[in-house]
Amino acid sequence: AQSVTQLGSHVSVSEGALVLLRCNYSSSVPPYLFWYVQYPNQGLQLLLKYTSAATLVKGINGFEAEFKKSETSFHLTKPSAHMSDAAEYFCAVCNSGGYQKVTFGIGTKLQVIP
Amino acid sequence: EAGVVQSPRYKIIEKKQPVAFWCNPISGHNTLYWYLQNLGQGPELLIRYENEEAVDDSQLPKDRFSAERLKGVDSTLKIQPAELGDSAVYLCASSLGGVRDTQYFGPGTRLTVL
User: Fold this and answer.
1) Which residue of A has its CA nearest to B40?
2) A65 exposed, middle or buried (CB, 10 Å; 0-12, 13-18, 19+)?
3) Measured between CA atoms, how close is A70 to chain B, in angstroms?
């Protein structure tokens, strides 16, 4: 069965500092991987997704993530945090073959300190 | 282009009462999802439709939950009777193709059962 582990349910960074949100996955077949962001009182929206092309994926708002098969990781990074980045971030995995289903992590709430 | 529309946004009911949620996906999107999101958790799939067919309802508590997507467009999720533990946010999402495609989420319905 596939699963996603997000380390750190809450992360605080100073404005201008590096953002690093961790995601590790478990999948028996090559996965598709997603990062979604949820702002307060809004639905989730896609930041970026990995579909087995380039291992470094660039998304919206300056975010990027690197697929590392050896570490089964797909960590999300941004070089410099903005106040507007404060939100909840969800990592999700979908197997690429057979019975397909998306499984979401529990989310990481990012706080940006001025 | 309009996004995924959900109504109502908020609902407060007494336990044992029925409740229904409505979702209108993005025009042309074949796949529709209903998720349950508890506080501090990621979305958990309740049911997935491909057009009007429910292709994954394995996590839907069928003794009290039901859903329909009669014409393959909008959808209704019903709970009857509601229990205290049903208090959560109910999210609807849609995608153009299957689960590997980007999902577009509505703002959700926050249900409180008293």
Assistant:
1) A106
2) buried
3) 22
Q: Which of B3, B40, B98 sits opposite A100 (nearest CB)?
A: B98
H helices, E strands: number in chain B: 0, 11
With a cut of 90, say whether residue B69 has pLDDT above it: yes
pLDDT band at B1 (very low <50, low <70, confident <90, very high): low
Pairing of the two strands A73-78 and B88-95: unpaired
Q: Which residues of chain A have pLDDT under 50?
A: none
B11-61 residue pLDDT tens: 999 999 999 999 999 999 999 999 999 998 999 999 999 999 999 999 999
Task: Determine whether the interchain pair A49/B102 forms a contact, defined as Cβ–Cβ distance below 8 Å.
Answer: yes
The residue among A14, A13, A36, A12 whose CA lies nearest residue A23 is A36
Interface test with A, best of B103, B104, B109, B110 (most A CBs within 10 A): B103
Task: List chain A residues with CB under 8 Å of B8.
Answer: none
The pLDDT, as a whole number, for residue A107 is 96
The predicted pLDDT at position B68 comes to 95
**DSSP state letters, A62-98:** G-EEEEETTTTEEEEEESS--GGG-EEEEEEEEESSS
Is B31's Cβ below 8 Å from some Cβ in A?
Answer: no
Euclidean distance between CA atoms B73 and A10, whole angstroms: 37
Question: How far is Cα A91 from Cα A43, in angstroms, rounded to an integer?
Answer: 15
